[in-house]
Write the structure tokens for this entry.
Amino acid sequence: MDENSNPVSGNSRNDERDMAQLIEALRRFAYQNGMAAEQTDVFTRQVQERVVKTDITGDQEINLYRAAAAQLAQFPDLQNDGNLIGFQEDRESHLALQSLPVNKRMAAVLHLVNGHKISFASRVLQLEEQEMLGYIDSAKSELAKKLAIEDQQELTQRLEFLAKSIKRVKLPDREAPIEESPVIDEQQKEQVPKVKKPAIWLVAASIALLAGVVGASFFFDSFRLPSASEASEGQLTQEMADEMEQQYEETRENAKQRLGVEEGQFAEFTFVANADQEKDELFSRSELQQHKDDAELFTQQMEELIWMIETPKGMGESLANSGHMPIDEMDRFIELYLMKTNELQDFAENILKNNEEQLPAASEHYGEPQLLIEDIPDASAELEQLLAAWPEYGLRFRLSDPDRMHLLTKDTESLQWLPQFQSHPFASMYLEIFSYYPYFDEQGWLIEPFQLSHEFYKMLYVLVEEPTDSELKAEIEVIYEQTVWQITKGAEQEIYAEGVVKPEIRELWKMLTLYDPLAAILVPVIDEMEDSGWQQSDSLDRLEYGDSLKMLKLEQQGQLSSTLPNGDFPLESELVDLADFDYDRVKELYARFKQSYDMDLLAGVQPLDIYFLYFYANQEKDPATMYHLLADSKLKPSLEKYKADWEQIPELTENALWVEIQQEMTQRIYKKVMIQPMVMYEEQDIGFHRANPLQPALVTERDRIWLVQYQQQEFSQAPDPELQKQGMEAFKTLANQEKLPKNTSPLVVTYALLHAIDQEDAAVANALLAPGTEGQEIEFWRNFAGSHQVAGFDNLRSVSFTATDLNIENEVDASLEILYEIEDTSEWSEHLNMKKTPDGWRFELFPSY
């Protein structure tokens, strides 16, 4: 072989870069099998030189791996500490692999960790495939025992995580030469494991390696596919293979042109190199022989190959006219799409970064980057080329940071509309998660911290609910772990200001306690932070990188509740028919509780029984007992006021058909856990004001005691002359620039606003807005009245007000429903938010208004 020829392959596409990638893979292979990191560079260079000098023909990737395996087997002490691996759990997996005999170890590294096919691993180690499968099964058993893992899926996932960590390992570039062909004494020979038959790869010399390769080559050279006229049904023909190979070449050339890049750059993309390598393997004689009797399977693999080489836009177009796809194929499609857009995103961002000074600070064309070139008259050739081909890249401008207009996200909207994605139970979540990732970079947040709450919801939904162990799920697990770490123990300047946790981070932490796996971590942290003025937490100091995944796994296994504050309560799902219900099940408890109002009597009582106890007290016209069944709240009045204002609420058994509690409907709200009873009514729509009193939330905060959440509720059925009169008086008070009493009813405040709109008095209307809400011109209020049906009192039917402080911050949230009758006897419901201010109840306006 000529010294300048490529030792990897005769294919012109496999250049020096391919050899560099292969040698790097061999270095990692040596490190995985126990070689010291500082020895791997010289080792792999020696392996490469030997294969080149012996001039072995055939698949040179196999030859290099085979030579490396043979050389590794001669080393007497293959053990390293794995300290280059970042995560402790992955280091444990790495060390467990090294505890295996060298034969099983190499087999496990090749197949279980690095994902090579059994056929590839068998050829490297020169074993029959059945014998290789025996090694793999034995290795799995020993690894599971060593790592104390019972579930084979969990073991597979552990090894997948290890594979990801190995890819992130940075091996040293140069080191001192290692001794060639070490002498093995008798004691060391005992450490070399033995197999049932002579394993060439343990002691193989170059001549034996060459003989094995030549023999295999001779066998494959004698193989050919049948022609169309010779083939039986279902067989792969030579014509089919030729046509599909031509299809790949045409798709590859088309993708290159659509991306607007030259061959040199196109071949540099990893997704192209992977596709080319996969194509060479798929159309190799060994693979063609393997598929000669299964044309359908070969066609399926060809479809994936086309996905691999297409542009992101082309991938979506390839599905536009296809039918239903199995979920595993959809997962693979998404995986390839995201890998590709990740690489293209880096490529595009580098071009944009190099030309950042030319990018306009603001332009209406950022939504259509092909037109953006109109705003850049002196654009460089590479920038012009990128923007011209933009639709093919599957990207969009992030536009969140005016100082970094080169930042991009993935554009998955076109995929979301494809029927295959709409039928996939988790595809939408996958795409949304990856669309906005990464959430941060070395300069800080790339999205607002509060948005992370939505991203965590999506990640946890997939990680907990997705029943399969897809590659995508494993990727999201990594994102989840990284993001938890970033928001708790990441860059100090992003979390703290002058030594104190920033308000937006406090809000984010509390918001994330809605999710049990995060509540298990964050609740003790928040408690300690609050006690220290948001400066210090021992629980946070003790937090380690892998802890978030430990909590997640407990949640996946249904074992997290015992680790949560107020999480170990017993809860039973139950549906109760109310047709002949008479409260017998709670009468005895009612009698005992009424005597002392001792909360300990309620410990362990099911929430549905507390619900019935509350309504039985209502039936008995016993406001004192109802009061003591209410949870503490900022809104909860004194017992005396509650009794003075008490009015009997609608009787449950006269207004509802059945009531149900479902165990899975619990929701954590910081330290409280809430559950909402479901009630079925005889009428289809009984109205907000009638339904709301019958569906109070039940909460527990301590000692397994469930209570009814207090809500402030007011309702008025129109016409209500007295309320209209009070509203007019309040309007006149404000018109005279006087203040309303702080305890003015929210319904009176509402009628005052309606009078102000009816009188077109913008000053009074603005005076009824909460502080910080911008005052509006009279034209706004006219439009408001016209577009929202808020005008006058003739068609007003009812006003309902509800306020609660059942939320993360224990802040008061209030909402108002104004019901109007419009033409054709139909109704219009207007919903407004109210806020309790130092001056009393006031309105909040949002951009939609």
Q: What stands out?
A: The chain has five domains: 16-220, 234-310, 457-563, 574-710, 715-844. Confidence is low (pLDDT under 50) at residues 1-14, 175-222.
